[in-house]
C-alpha cells in the first residue's frame, strides 16, 4: 500500500485546448500520465490529485476528463484547483454523491490513508505583479491585488481549518496536508498555511500549481521546520506520480 500524489493534469478531452504549446513535457501528456499511473499505482493504493484537473468550464465539459481520472488505478481523492470551474466549493457534496465510489472530492472534509488524515483545500498565494529593480530585487508589488489576495487567503485558511477539525473530531492525530497553490509565495518564508501545518503537527505538505522551470522554485521544497514539502505539479514530475508514504 502506498500514498501517491500529482497535480495539474489540465485535461481537455471535450474541448479544444492543446497543451503542447507549453513545452515538450506536455506532448501527449495524458498518455504519459496514464502509462505511469498504471505502472506505479495499484488498486489498493491511494492517489491524491491536487487540482487543475480539467479545462472544462462546467461539469458537462469536464465529464470526459473526470471519467479519464476515474479509470486510473487507486483510490482517487481530488482537490480543487484554480482552473476547476466545474467544481463549486459549496456544492462538493453533490459531486461526491454523483461520483461515489469512483472519485472523492476533498473540500471541508477529510479522507484517510492508514492512520493519517488527508486534509486540504485549494489555498491561495499572492502572485504579484511584483516590481523589480535593475538588479532583479523586488522593490514593491501591486497593493490592490494584494488586498484582494488577503481575502482569498483568509477564506481558504478557514476551509483548511474545517478540514483539519473534521479529521481531529474523527480521532485522527496524524496529518498529510494538501494544497493546490504553493504554501508560500516567492517573497514569503511562512504563511497562514505553513503555520497551520506546524500547529497540527503535519508530516507532509503537498502542493502543485507551479508550472515551468522558472516557477518550480517559487515555494518550499524538502524539510522545513520538521515538515517535508513536496511540489507535485504534473510537468515538474514529468507526469510520474510521487510516492508520499509507503
Ligand atoms: Fe495548473
Ligand atoms: Fe493552478
Automatic annotation (TrEMBL):
Pfam families linked: Metallophos
Lineage per the UniProt record: Bacteria, Bacillati, Bacillota, Clostridia, Lachnospirales
Originating species: Ventrimonas faecis
Protein name: Metallophosphoesterase
Gene3D superfamilies linked to this entry: 3.60.21.10
Signal peptide: none
All residue ranges annotated as the Calcineurin-like phosphoesterase domain in the record: 3-211
